[in-house]
């Protein structure tokens, strides 16, 4: 399953991990690039995370599973869900290894919820 609609460069404008909001200054330095067969997360001009992904679906959500091959998440599989509306992409990453069942990042969870805006 592939979706050309999520391809492109995405800038985060809101994020929280386990209930804690990410600082705006950190978000301003990040970008997510999704190509037809890979993803890369940049912090400034450096790639901080990169790998491949697969798309799928659950009963309620569109799923994306990241497989890190380099950087901070090398060797990890991160089940996630996403929602795309126009030029906005919201992803809830299951850094605890469990696929999220909602777009929430509750305190104590291993969920990272990020809202992105398309730049291209």
Task: Provide the fold topology.
Layout lengths: L7 E10 L2 E2 L2 H4 L2 E5 L4 E5 L2 E12 L4 E10 L5 E9 L2 E7 L16 E8 L2
Antiparallel strand pairs: 1-2, 1-3, 1-9, 3-4, 4-5, 5-6, 6-7, 7-8, 8-9
Tell me about this structure.
By secondary structure, this protein is mainly beta. The chain has one domain: Beta Barrel (Lipocalin), CATH 2.40.128.280. The protein is built from one helix and nine strands; from the N terminus they run E-E-H-E-E-E-E-E-E-E. The chain has one helix at residues 24-27, and strands at residues 8-17, 20-21, 30-34, 39-43, 46-57, 62-71, 77-85, 88-94, 111-118. The protein has an eight-stranded antiparallel barrel with strand order 1-3-4-5-6-7-8-9. The longest helix is centred in the first third of the chain and has 4 residues, at 24-27. The two termini are 23 Å apart. The model has no long low-confidence stretch (mean pLDDT 92).
Summarize the entry for a quick read:
The chain is mainly beta. The protein contains 1 helix and 9 strands, in the order ββαβββββββ. It has one domain: Beta Barrel (Lipocalin), CATH 2.40.128.
Instruction: For the largest sheet, list the strands in their spatial order.
Output: 1-3-4-5-6-7-8-9
Overall 3D shape: globular
Radius of gyration: 13 Å
- Percent range of helical residues: under 10%
Within the CATH hierarchy, at the fold level, what is the topology? Lipocalin
Number of strands: 9
What count of structural domains?
A: 1
The averaged pLDDT comes out at 92
Oligomer: single chain
CATH architecture: Beta Barrel
Task: Determine and state the CATH class.
Answer: Mainly Beta
What does the main sheet amount to?
8 strands, antiparallel, barrel
Task: Please provide the ordered H/E string of secondary-structure elements.
Answer: EEHEEEEEEE
Strand content: over 45%
Structural class: mainly beta
How far from one another are the termini?
23 Å
Low-confidence stretches: none
Tally of alpha and pi helices: 1
